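Lab notebook, entry 389. We have the chain sequence and a SMILES string for flavin-adenine dinucleotide, and the next step in the workflow is to get a structural model of the bound complex before anyone spends time on docking refinements. Request logged below.

Task: model protein plus flavin-adenine dinucleotide, output structure tokens.
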Amino acid sequence: MQSMYFTEEHQLFRASLKDFLQKEVVPHIDKWEETGTIERFIWKKFGDMGYFGLATPEEDGGLGLDLFYTIILLEELQKINSGGFAAAIWAHAYLAMTHLNKEADAYLKEKYLRPSVDGDKIGCLCISEPFGGSDVAAMRTTAIKNGDHYILNGSKTFITNGVYADYMIVAAKTNPELGNKGISIFAVDRKSEGVTANKLNKLGWRASDTAELAFDNVKIPAVNLMGEENMGFSYIMEHFSLERLIMGVNAHARSEHVLEYALNYMSEREAFGKSINQFQALRHRVVDLHADIDMCKEYNYSVAYRLDKGQYVVKEATISKLKSTKVADEVAYECLQFLGGYGYIEDYPMARNFRDSRLGPIGGGTSEILREIISKIIIDKKEYKPATV
Ligand SMILES: Cc1cc2nc3c(=O)[nH]c(=O)nc-3n(C[C@H](O)[C@H](O)[C@H](O)COP(=O)(O)OP(=O)(O)OC[C@H]3O[C@@H](n4cnc5c(N)ncnc54)[C@H](O)[C@@H]3O)c2cc1C
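Result returned:
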């Protein structure tokens, strides 16, 4: 079916990206999954291809393209079946770099954004803390002003790219007594004195490094404050829409990919004298999964369209992640089942997909927190507004 969202240029971009991923990434994925380390050369290759700069304006070294190029990047990254590799790439390009795109001044753009576009510097976004991730306002990390520096103390956890990144976008309380109105965002060199990292061992997303970070009297130059002091909570909330849509898109793309794989397998696998795709019990389940994926995909595209037009789609992006990650978990479970014993074997893609999928309803806001947000909007009539309005 001809898409109303993707032009011929988009399709050409998709074709060349697919080709790039097959040639440059796929041969290394199993190794990176095993070592939990993505080799540095691939970051530079992504930079050289312009993939990190899709959403960065041309004057800052990017390509300034519409959001559907980003959607294509996200979708194709899911289709090489390494949630961890995909996460490392999008956490850099859309978690760390979104803050740089939106809040960095000329100095910080030169120092962090341009090298991020080029693949010379890798970033991470540090919000979650060991004492609680869902309750962002309760964070305990502080950055207290002292002359021309801030002194950073505290800790973060579950930070994607946190071990191998070159810089961190860190949320900390500059005025702890003000609660969520006292949070600011800083760009911090990962190698700054007083920063230590511990790599976490995870169920899935195994190619990406996930860090626990400790900050012990880390000196941050005052010029590394991003945007306005004490506006951090609003910036975080504003960018959550994109992050949640990203996780929704990842979920529909991953689901589409594994269902296609399962269907192919089912057409070849025989039982009781016929291919297993002829059993009605399985056919009907396939149909339900296909229908759910289609609904999520079309919904996610419509949210992307509205976000790209500058609309503040808090409710819609939250629904996108809530529903698409739930569907993806069901698809992961069912498609593994369609492969029988082979679904449980690492040589087949379902086992990794099953593990990777489980992060969907947790990272970037748990499903429970997403329901809280949606209930505030639809029941309490709460209105969310962007920080910059
Ligand atoms: C692999 C991985 C990568 C991640 N990457 C990043 C990253 O790059 N940067 C970053 O900042 N964070 C990252 N995170 C953190 C992630 O966003 C948090 O794990 C998530 O927000 C939940 O926080 P928590 O783990 O502290 O759970 P908690 O907040 O402790 O919640 C525990 C449980 O209680 C439930 N709960 C909490 N509050 C409520 C409530 N009000 N009502 C109902 N239920 C509630 C939750 O839904 C959950 O089920 C990552 C996490 C993982 C696992």
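Notes for the group: Residues 91, 95, 124-128, 132-134, 158-160, 202, 205, 210, 359, 362-366, 368-369, 372 surround flavin-adenine dinucleotide (CB under 6 Å). Worth checking against the assay data. DSSP finds ten helices and ten strands in the chain.
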